[in-house]
Amino acid sequence: MSLKQLFSDRPPFNAVLQEKAQKIRYSCSPAKCLHSLLSFLPIITWLPKYDWSHSFFGDLSGGLTMAVFSVPQGIALASITGVPPVYGLYTAIFPSFLYIFFGTSKHNALGGFAVLSLMTHGAIEKVMLRTATSYNATAYVNHTLDELFDKENDTIITNTTLMQILGNETSFVEEVTLEMWTEGVTPVKQIHVATTIIFLAGIIQVLMGVFRLQYLTSLFSEQVMSGFVVGGGIHVFFAQIGNMLGIELPRRSGPGYLYYRIWDLIENLDNVHIPTVCISMSSFLFLVIGKEYLAPWLSSAFNYPVPYEFVLVVVGITATNYAELSRRHDVKVVGNIPTEFPPPSLPRFDLIRHIGLNAAAIAITAVAIHITVAKVVEKRYKYKINHGQELYALGFVGVLSSFFPVFPVTSGFARSVVGAAVGGSTQLTCLFSSLALVSVILFIGPALKYLPQCILSAMIIFAQKGMLEKFGELKSLWPVFKIDFAIWLMSFFLTVCYDMGEGLLMAIGFAVLTTIIRTQRPKWHFLSRDDETDHFKETKKRDLERIQGNVCIFRMDAPLIFTSSDRFTMSVWQCVKKWERCKSESFVTIEQMNSDRSADIFESKLKAARRRWKRDQKSDTRCKLVIDCDGFPYVDYLGLSTLKAVYVDLKAAGVQCFFVVQKSELKRLFRATDFYEVVDESQVSPKNTKEVLTALSSIATTDTMLIDEEDNEEDADPEERVTEESENSEEVMSETSVSIGEARSSASSRNSINSEE
Length: 757
Description:
Layout: H1 3-6, H2 13-27, H3 30-40, H4 43-46, H5 52-81, H6 85-102, E1 110-111, H7 114-129, E2 134-142, H8 145-148, H9 159-165, E3 173-181, H10 190-210, H11 222-245, H12 257-267, H13 274-298, H14 308-323, H15 325-328, H16 352-381, H17 387-401, E4 410-411, H18 413-421, H19 428-444, H20 453-463, H21 465-468, H22 473-477, H23 482-497, H24 500-520, E5 524-529, E6 536-539, E7 551-556, H25 565-584, H26 590-594, H27 598-618, E8 624-628, H28 637-652, E9 656-660, H29 664-672, H30 675-678, E10 684-685, H31 689-697, H32 701-716, H33 718-728, H34 730-756
Parallel strand pairs: 7-8, 8-9, 9-10
Antiparallel strand pairs: 1-4, 2-3, 5-6, 5-7
């Protein structure tokens, strides 16, 4: 073993290999595997500890209430997605049931979401436009005599035989009509596209959990999501307004389709169906009166929330059935709902290449909404939710649910809280809700076929009221947070002007761009010691004259990277310039002249001017600059090169530069590079920041104390002082003395006038 290896800080290679092997054996041990299984299936942990006597009846009532609310909501979301109504009920059953096994939240309930349904509808329309269509084509087959001759029966080919076989008497060519297909996707149903989207989205969410990418949800800031949700509400409104007015609008999809949808609506205003409009307005008015005026009053009288949507559905079905509105007034209804349970089937994997981007946007949006609801639930019910496990839960639920006819899901705050409001306290609330919905499909499904579609559209549009209330956030953002205000508006306009997925991605890009711009313009400030607390604090430029000594302490609170290195260099020189200019100024501002301490200010200005002149006579050095490196969260290669270049330039300009380094990562960076070959190691202090800055601030103490002693001597012997100064500083101090003397005389005259008044 060499001497270098003997004194090396690195452990031996064999020891490293043994440590790695031991970690692998521990990770593959039965106990570790069991722990991993339990972490993927939280139900194994909490179900044996379930308190049946305390929680069962609360979960039962909460599940039944949630099912009552989910029936009209599921049918309405199915109409947004563009699939038959029964699939909305399936979406409220399967994902919510599967979440019991993988989820860690007691109150989250998975189901459809209006924005996700609209994004899914856009993907479905895109696939349907690319679907291949069939057409008839004529082909000609040239037969030979051997093909037509029947050797067994020795049939002789005559004109009559040719007419019977080929349809002509003169040739052996047969005309055949074939069914051909255009280029595109094999014919597919809308629900098959939706199940493929939720399958691919589930795979993406599982991969996000594997690579611990839940931090990506931080890109979905509150302002981005608020603008996106409000913009999505606008899309939902125009998607449902046709059903409320009884107008059949053409299909539209793609970026900017909303412009064409508005134009289609204007062109078809003459075709408004009056009975449908009357039912829609009556339903909307019922929801407004019930939920805005009666609900607050009835909440104090009943322990259970009144399901106004369910009441509206029951009234609409009854009125349509007995008044025969569908037959007599041509009011469109939901139609037949099958009562059989769907068998599992595989998704259409051939559609993945057409919906990949849509599925990625839906997956990330679902994660962002789910994590946001989870954080709200954490804060409201005071317990911790494992966000990493929630990614796995969403992914596994999506993959397993894709074998049944469902569309993409996420958490909804209203759906998650309604069960808890009536006593639900565990995941079994979703189990009882799913069982109740299965009963609805099997026994009550045929009655739902009389439900008017305009009632569902009225319910959906009324549900967007909560989203539109987010416009109130702009009022609180504008006075202080201008950039967040711009992000909110940009997210809203991009979502409205483009399609949902593209608008969300561009809004995220705009938010990231604002962050990059802000890092390129970091703020810097001076530091000075507070005499009361003995700590260092930020100091404004107008207060620099109160700082004793000639040590300037500089701090920039931003990463020192390639985007901010030029700004850092410019800020350092700007700091030195402002410091030296402030220390050389001897004029008095108007505010200081009008203050009660004007005489003291004049005296301090005169003494400061004398001190600066004597200090300049003793030394040729400029100010001493201290750079507090604790303001740098991290430093890259260009940032480190900038620090060295600034040090060299300051030294060449006669400015002594010191670095205060307390972070261990930055210390290791200095030692691992050639930093100390350029910068003297004595100029870099690794001590505590407070102690270092205090020590460096005391550099000018000797000069200050000497000047104070000389001032005292001058006060004791004024004749000697005048004689000495007249020889050396008559010409230098004349301008300063005159300016301060004039200001003093004007201030004294002003004070005398004020006293007479």
